[in-house]
Amino acid sequence: MNKSISHQKEKPRVLLGMSGGVDSSTAVYLLQEDGYHVKGLTLALTCSLTSLFGDTIHPRDHADRAKRVCDRFKIPHETLDRCRLFENRVVHPFVREYFSGRTPNPCVECNRFVKWDELLKKADEEGIPYVATGHYARVRYSAMSKRYELLKGRDPKKDQSYYLWQLTQEQLARTRFPLGDLTKDRIKIIATEQGLESANSGESQDICFIPGDDYREFLREYVPDQYQSVGTGYFLTQDGDIVGEHPGYFHFTIGQRRGLRLALGYPVYVLEIRPESNEVVVGPKEALIRSETLVSRVNWVSIAPPEKPVEALVKIRYRHKGLKALLNPLSHDKIFIKFIDISEAVTPGQSAVFYDGERVLGGGIIEGA
Predict the structure, then answer these.
(1) Active-site annotation, residues
(2) Second-level CATH architecture of 292-368
(3) What is the CATH number of domain 231-288?
(4) pLDDT < 70: residue spans in the chain
(5) 21, 85, 101, 369 — which has fewest CB within 10 A?
(6) What is the pLDDT of residues 53-84, one digit of tens each?
(7) What are phi and psi of 317, to 5 degrees?
């Protein structure tokens, strides 16, 4: 047979990041249907935490489930221990941010500096041109701008583009999102049809290394000395009046209302966190309103870094509907956002992600007013 014809008929290879859940498991089937030779890769990330949290963190279970899926579809599977990397690049910064009075977004850091970096490193070692994940997002190439564009997933309830704003052009060029055009309901139907054991599993918890999604309990167990050293502090009004006592400033985030246990005659929200004095300033909801914020560590995804102000819809939280805003470039990685719509609870440490329709223009870390 002509070698050139044989080469043309070879299926492209893709390395799929697998957690053992329904999304990445179904992605195997979808990639095979699209003509790819698939290899599954599970990154063991939380194994160093099992001594603290026991059965509530079980990386081996994820790897075993992923391996069974790969056996089901007759594809190779490998597990890599990246626990130390995960702890250094995700867990330690997460802890530092909370003790700095900020609210971190660890999934954003993990996607960029652990998952994609490690997937591509492994793919390069094995000569695999593409990587894939089970995220609900899409990528397309724009011939006009000559850039790869990151797009929202088709399912508005599951779109995960918010967490992917740090991806680079080089990473997007090699990334496949097989779930991006489908809804979660459709994925579950496909998983059931394929007889996958994860078909009827519940949604995974928000942060993989936080048992029960209780970050306060995590901090108490993970850094007990630092946790205890903070001690109790005071709630203050904007005028500086003491109105109550709290167990430590890091228990709270900007905009929080629940759990304050303050009776001031009106609904009370966290307005400011002062780590240096262990004080939390509270007040009415209208005091949360911000018309502007500084954003650092900006990464422009679907467009080149702009030299002039750009209008966009800005999401300041994952489930946020978005606010119209003007993005004013200050430097290559800093912008000043002026909200056209009124905002509220702009939380330092969280991600601000900029959209133009379905395109993710870019994103950055909120620094505050």
Answers:
(1) 110, 208
(2) Beta Barrel (2.40)
(3) 2.30.30
(4) 1-9, 50-60, 201-205
(5) 369
(6) 655 556 567 789 999 999 999 999 999 999 99
(7) -150, 160
